Amino acid sequence: MKKIILVLILIITCIKVNAYENKYFNISIPDNYKLTENEEYIYKWEKDKKYIAITINSNLNLKYNIETFDEEELNKQKEYLENGINEVLKKYNLKAEVSNINKLSKENTYYLEYDIYYPSKELTGYDMYQKGRMYTTKNYITTIIYSSEEKIDEDKNCKEVFDSFKILDTNLIIKNNLKIYIYIILIVGSILGVIGGIVSYKKRK
Fold it and tell me: What is the separation of C-alpha 183 from the centre of its chain, rounded to a whole number of angstroms?
C-alpha cells in the first residue's frame, strides 16, 4: 500500500510535458510553457521569465563538424559567441559572459554545451542565465537554449528538456540564402529573450 501511495504521489508531482515534433526535431516541453515563436527555423516557448528556443540553420556551405573540434576551436567558439552577443547588446550598455564551453557526446552524437550570463538586473529587474547546446549534421547547425532568471545548475527542467531533444531527418535540406558565420547562428536563440526583456522593461518605465 505504501508503495502504491508513493507512486501516486510521484505521478501527481511530476511536471506534465507536451511532445513537440516537426520535420527537423522532436522535444518534450513542460506544458506550462507557451509556444510563442513558430517560424520555419526559429521556435520558442515561454513561461514567465523563462524560455526555450531552438534555431536551425544550413551547414551545407560552412561544413562545421563538432566532432573534430579541438581545444583551440572551442576557445574560438567561445570568443565568437561572446563577441557576437555583446556586439548586439552594446547599445544597451550590457555585456554578457560565456563560460563552461565543452565538447560532449551522447549516443555517438557530439555537441557543444555552454553557459551564458547576462548581468541585466539594472535594465530588466533580473539577471538572466542560459545554457545552450549546438549540434552539427551534414545539412544543419541546430542550437537549443534554455533561459531563466535563476541559476540553471540545479534546474531539473533544463536537463529533462535537453535530454528529450532529438534531431530527426538529417538529410533534409533547408534554404541557405545568406553565408553566415557560426557566432551569428549561436547568438540568435541566445538573445531572443534578452532583447525582449529589455524592450518590455523600457516600455514599462
Answer: 14
